Amino acid sequence: MDPLVSVIVPVYNVLPYLHEALDSLIGQTYRELEIILIDDGSTDGSGEVCDGYAERDQRICVIHQKNKGLSAARNIGLDRANGNYIAFIDPDDAFHSEFIEKLLSSMIHENADMALCKYSIQHTTEKMEWSSSDKLQPLIAAGIYDRSPVLDALITGNLNVNVWNKLYKKSLWESIRFYEGHVYEDNDIAYQIYSHIDKLCVIQESLYNHRKRPGSITMDYSYRNIDDAFQAIMRTESFIMANVPVLFSREQLLSFQQNLIKNILVCYFRSKKVTEVPKREYRAKLRHQIIEAGDKYDINRFSFQVRLAYFMLCKCPMLFDLCFPCYRIMVSIKRKIRAT
How far apart are CA 212 and CA 184, in angstroms? Predict the structure, then answer.
């Protein structure tokens, strides 16, 4: 008998994209699915669409609740899931008809705890198209990995933290739940989950299209989102420090701390786009937190590019805002070269 896969889909006000996602899901070649749709207080008719799909397909279960946020919706799905395997799907994305089948097949063949596929990012409000192979993410090469190289790839940014292009053994989630009340919940979860795996399968094929659209969480430059991103980074650093040297080496901690500085510099740069007031006071507070982090980690241990960006922020924030886009391009090119 084929194992049951529970697919958890949190739904909140995504009516223009929901049909594409749900059609991708019910059209999966792997049929032993439990599809859990959590309508998180939608006000645009998304909940009614979910009910309509449930009437057509008995594998679909719809849970309606007051708006509690993405993390709480996913946790409800985890609590209700009956499958041996877990997948998370975003309701504004689309995926290949063999998404579940190929990930599950690789996991069973290798007796792996988890599998992931490559994906493309598409900035569109229209129906998504499959991308060419040269633009696929994450940068980690296809293959079978044990825990240590997986954690290396996660720390260096060659492995994405998002939960949606992956398939998990349910046992990984027995004692882990998403951090509720905050966005960027994937950042908190990724290191905990990857620290529990013994084997990971990476598939080279692009089986998932991830949509970037106006109004999505990652495109929201509010104080709350930026601060949540900052706090998620700091919580992850605390988790790594608490697990040195059992799970993480001193070298991995140093690498993470260097990337931490990069990421909180990104938080500061994004705060320039905030339209809320008082903007100047918020940016000054965030800048002070970044300077404290640099002092804490001894910024002189890090690469020239990181030190340059940090010192520009310390000495001349206006120059930092002007030059930081060029810095990000340099970092991206360097990471891609290192991954090849």
Answer: 15
